[in-house]
Amino acid sequence: MNVFLLRSSASAEVVNHVRRLSTTSTKNVKVAVCGASGGIGQPLALLLKQSPLVTKLSLYDIVHTPGVAADLSHIDSPAVTSGHNGPENLKDALSGMDVVIIPAGVPRKPGMTRDDLFNTNASIVRDLAEACAKYCPKALIGIISNPVNSTVPIASEVLKKAGTYDKRRIFGVTTLDVVRSNAFIAEAKKLDPRKVNVPVIGGHAGITIIPVISQATPSVSFEKNQLEALTLRIQDAGTEVVKAKAGSGSATLSMAYAGARFAFSLCKAINGESNVVECAYIASDITESPYFATPIKLGKDGVADNLGLGKLSSYEQDLVQAAIPELQKSIKKGEDFVNKSS
Question: What region holds the Lactate/malate dehydrogenase N-terminal domain (predicted)?
Fold first, then answer.
């Protein structure tokens, strides 16, 4: 009986906390997840459903989406949830959405690079971007589908052709690189990972992932060999998970966590919260690469301010120079795909 009362009291406290948070929201934020039945999409949708920042959760995929939505709809949180299957239902899934998160696509398997996913995922992102242009042209769009270095340019080119492009509103979600950097550095220095923040710039594949450890909060330092090993681990962290899963998939749970974090930041910015900062891969003139990830300040219309590179160490400057040709090649590949397919 005492245990029951304790649990009931705790549950009531959580419910009241959610209600208090929901009343502080100044706007009903409607969020769509495209690829909601997949390995990233399902846990991402679960995290979004629990948040009082989200009042409408629209789930889209090719199959099984109504079942995922029905399952989530039994959770006692405010977000009204709906599920939509197939291209013929994209209008219902996307109309009126404020935020669209796109994890749709095939996952990596052992031996595959993110570029190996290009042909399949490029077509998926192209088609979803076309739907966003038609049904929610003012939405903030976060792209998780790999290879992000190419899929963000693909979506941008599609929106340009549709006449709805706004470079402030489209993001490559590179938050997982930040989350990993925070976790790995906290582990190495025996810190609380919740209190560690490491900017990650560049892109979202291999050497284009550049953790700016010289700007970490709290300040940390490593010997050269340790720094190089840690940087390499962060750059290869996705492959680390693919190998550990031994053919059963890629990073899904951690990516869902990171994707939800980014989505919540977009929701907060839409609601007028100030000083919302995340790293993301965006159209940029900070370097020679037309797209580049940096810390950005978010606002109601998306990117409010690109905070740039900050002061880089000589080691980090060398990493940027090595990354730019790789980024330029991936960007051109994405842009060429749209021009050829149209």
Answer: 29-172
Characterize the bridge pairing of strands 302-306 and 291-299: antiparallel
**CA 19 – CA 48 distance, rounded (Å):** 16
Closest residue by Cα to residue 253 from 153, 170, 183: 183
Q: CA-based angle 15:102:342, to the nearest 5?
A: 155
What residue ranges of the chain are covered by domains with CATH 3.40.50.720?
26-173
Please, what's the b/e burial string for 264-298 (b: 16 or more CB within 10 A of its CB; e: otherwise)?
A: bbbbbbbbebeebebbbbbbbeebebebbbbbbeb
Nearest CA to 39 out of 103, 124, 127, 82 is that of 103
126 has a pLDDT exceeding 90: yes
Q: Write the CA distances from 252 to 38, 93, 273, 278, integer angstroms.
A: 9, 23, 29, 20
In this structure, what DSSP letter does residue 193 have?
G
**pTM value surpassing 0.85:** yes
Phi, psi of 85 (to 5 degrees): -105, 135
pLDDT of residue 111: 76
64 is catalytic: no
Residues 240-290 pLDDT 10s: 999 999 988 899 999 999 999 999 999 999 999 999 999 999 999 999 999
Could you please state the CATH topology (level 3) that the domain comprising 26-173 is classified under: Rossmann fold (3.40.50)
Tokens 């999409």 correspond to: 41
Give the residue from 138, 162, 169, 158 showing the smallest Cα distance to 280: 169
In CATH, which of 3.90.110.10, 3.20.20.240, 3.30.43.10, 3.40.50.300 is domain 175-332? 3.90.110.10
What's the confidence (pLDDT) of residue 342? Answer: 66
